[in-house]
Design a protein that fits this description.
The protein is an alpha+beta fold. 29% of the residues lie in helices and 16% in strands. It is built from 10 helices and 13 strands. Strands 8, 9, 10, 11, 12 and 13 form a 6-stranded antiparallel β-sheet that branches. The structure holds adenosine-5'-diphosphate and magnesium ion (MG). Adenosine-5'-diphosphate (ADP) binds next to strand 5, strand 12 and strand 13.
Length: 375
């Protein structure tokens, strides 16, 4: 079973030990095309075919990063290291091969196919170049929420009852109780998750399964709806040095009236903008010690079972009995630097007393330690 980690409940963290070596770091990323960049405006083929339809969906690039994030990351790493930017495109392999960096800081979400997050780590493995974060196997599994749930279920980690559907026939005899959630099986950053993903009857279920399979060209993941409070848990480090940052709650009581209680695409990218304050996040979450312990335990077990490395963020929601259930794990968590944008990992790090620079260098330090580059 899962190895017990006695230190997991200790907090607040965290000042990472200072680097005693200056590393040559390559920072690899995918940048949102609407930001200032020469990156070609490609449409990832997991969505509409760019030849038959040149209009990407509104959420096509939601997983990718902006220059604001990439530059903040670069500045943070440059406090201690030499940094070269490597765009995670088709030239990346040759760039890494020429550069031979000591280590790669990887935030690349990739563009093509369900293995898109695994491509950079796989090529770095081939070149024997160390990198931050989880390996290709873990990234590939975690992008597929159904495969992740199958593994969690094997280890007895509670998660909502689910079914993967590719067409209407697959849901004809579904014996789940409404309401349900319907989402793309392999996406992140709330892509494909709108208020309509919360379905109350068979008609809505059919229409959502159609929407996901047509618009996102992938299977629909149907889950029983977890109606309780929602938390997200940022985790940093490896082995006995793993730390859980202060828990964030998305407080649905503070959602505008009539909005479905989901951390949906609308909530993440439309309701919550730099201009309009969206104050629904409590960190640290206001929870009793028993619940806190349960949430930390399930989050850390999930991290270990999926063999995550260096950092990740686990989404957890309470079921109808008030018990924590895992929604998903994000081994490449979003790290928007601007506090007004409510990016979860940096928010939890700030509450733990870390600056953005501390947070980024802690991830690098954890990776460098794994590869025995630092003590
Ligand atoms: N089974 C579920 N029950 C209740 N809410 C859910 C469920 N699945 C997803 N959600 C809601 O939708 C949000 C986004 O789902 P998630 O699977 O985390 O997608 P993403 O990868 O886009 O973050 C969650 O934060 C939660 O609010
Ligand atoms: Mg999520």
């Amino acid at each position: 079973m899962v190895k017990k980690n006695k230190k997991y409940f200790k907090g607040p963290v965290i000042l990472f030990p200072l680097f005693n070596v200056r590393l040559n770091v390559a920072l690899t990323f995918n940048v949102k095309p609407e930001s200032e960049t020469t990156f070609p405006a490609i449409v990832p083929p997991n969505q509409k075919n760019p030849i038959s339809n040149t209009q990407p969906s509104t959420d096509t690039y939601a997983e990718w990063d902006t220059w604001e994030t990439i530059n903040a990351l670069k500045d943070s790493l440059e406090q201690y290291h030499n940094v070269t930017l490597v765009e995670a495109n088709e030239d990346a392999f040759n760039r890494f091969r020429e550069l031979q960096p000591d280590i790669v800081f990887n935030i690349a979400e990739g563009a093509y196919g369900v293995s898109r997050e695994t491509q950079i780590p796989a090529m770095l493995d081939m070149l024997q170049i160390p990198y931050t974060g989880s390996d290709a196997l873990t990234l590939g599994i975690c992008l597929d929420k159904a495969r992740t749930k199958e593994i969690l279920s094997y280890y007895g980690i509670q998660n909502a009852k689910f079914k993967v559907a590719d067409n209407i026939d697959d849901i004809k005899n579904l014996s789940f109780d409404f309401p349900l959630m319907v989402k793309p099986v392999c996406e992140g950053s709330s892509k494909g998750i709108y208020s309509s993903s919360f379905v109350r009857n068979e008609h809505e279920l059919y229409s959502e399964v159609n929407r996901i399979t047509n618009e996102y060209n992938q299977s629909a993941l149907i889950e029983e709806f977890l109606p309780g409070r929602e938390f997200t848990i940022a985790i940093l480090g490896n082995g006995s040095d793993t730390r859980i940052l202060p828990i964030i709650e998305i407080v649905y009581d503070r959602y505008p009236e009539g909005i479905v209680p989901l951390y949906s695409y609308e909530a993440k990218w439309i309701l919550d903008t730099k201009e309009s304050e969206f104050d629904v996040f409590d960190c640290p979450a206001n929870i009793d010690p028993v619940l806190e312990e349960k949430i930390k335990r399930i989050a850390l077990d999930t991290y270990n079972i999926l063999r995550c490395k260096d950092w990740s963020r686990v989404d957890v929601r309470l079921d109808k009995n008030g018990e924590p259930s895992v929604i998903e794990i994000n081994p490449l968590p979003g790290i928007i630097p601007d506090p007004t944008e409510n990016s979860s990992f940096p928010k939890a790090a700030r509450v733990a007393g870390m600056t953005y620079e501390d947070m980024i260098n802690s991830v690098l330090y954890a990776a460098a330690q794994r590869y025995s580059m630092v003590k």
